[in-house]
């Protein structure tokens, strides 16, 4: 097979084809093709044609697309490899993760449990935290959606009800606000708005604050 590809490479090179194209068409590495055809000298006309093709808009676009595909593949490989580091989550780990997320994104002033986010995956994780770790009663769960006025209220409420598994009847009235950045065109990075989840339980609020306090002390006492 190698000898056959070598002959194919030499024939294509003698016809004025580039090493990159030859390598792609015959399924060989550029280094192998370069060795196989290194004694072949292109004519001035062939060289000019290759240079013109190399700088053509189509070739520039092709190289850009190839580079982006390669970069995307490299990034995905890193992501996939890292994902193998986390294969499960114990109840204690869910306690720590949920507490840390609430510490970052949760309400802290109204003595009321409130978590706000626009990422459905994060919200699903926090609903596990509320239900499995906090044992939050279903009847004490509430939803409240904030969306731009250009978006569909029914779609948003149905969406977040499905994500949180909180019935729409337990949602507060959706808050609409003007979308200044998109000039009410409907173009937004949050097509379903942001969802607040409330747990109407003052005792649970204090309990979560206790977990946050304990977590902060693990880093050492500090006055900030």
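^ structure tokens above, recovered residues below v
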């Amino acid at each position: 097979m190698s000898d056959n590809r070598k002959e194919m490479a030499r024939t294509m090179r003698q016809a004025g084809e580039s090493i990159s194209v030859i390598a792609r068409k015959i399924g060989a590495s550029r280094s192998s093709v370069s060795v196989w055809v290194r004694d072949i000298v292109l004519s001035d006309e062939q060289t000019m044609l290759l240079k013109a093709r190399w700088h053509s808009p189509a070739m520039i676009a092709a190289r850009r697309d190839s580079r982006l595909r390669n970069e995307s593949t490299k990034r995905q490989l890193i992501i996939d490899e890292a994902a193998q580091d986390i294969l499960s989550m114990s109840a204690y780990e869910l306690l720590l993760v949920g507490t840390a997320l609430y510490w970052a994104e949760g309400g802290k002033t109204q003595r009321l449990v409130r978590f706000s986010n626009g990422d459905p995956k994060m919200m699903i994780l926090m609903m596990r935290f509320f239900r499995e770790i906090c044992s939050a009663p279903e009847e004490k769960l509430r939803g409240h959606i904030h969306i731009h006025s250009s978006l569909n209220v029914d779609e948003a409420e149905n969406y977040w009800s499905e994500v949180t598994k909180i019935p729409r009847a337990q949602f507060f009235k959706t808050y609409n606000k003007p979308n200044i950045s998109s000039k009410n065109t409907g173009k937004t990075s949050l097509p379903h708005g942001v969802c607040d989840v409330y747990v109407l339980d003052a005792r649970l609020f204090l309990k979560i604050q206790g977990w946050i306090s304990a977590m902060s002390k693990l880093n050492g006492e500090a006055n900030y």
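Residues 57-83 form the longest helix (27 residues).
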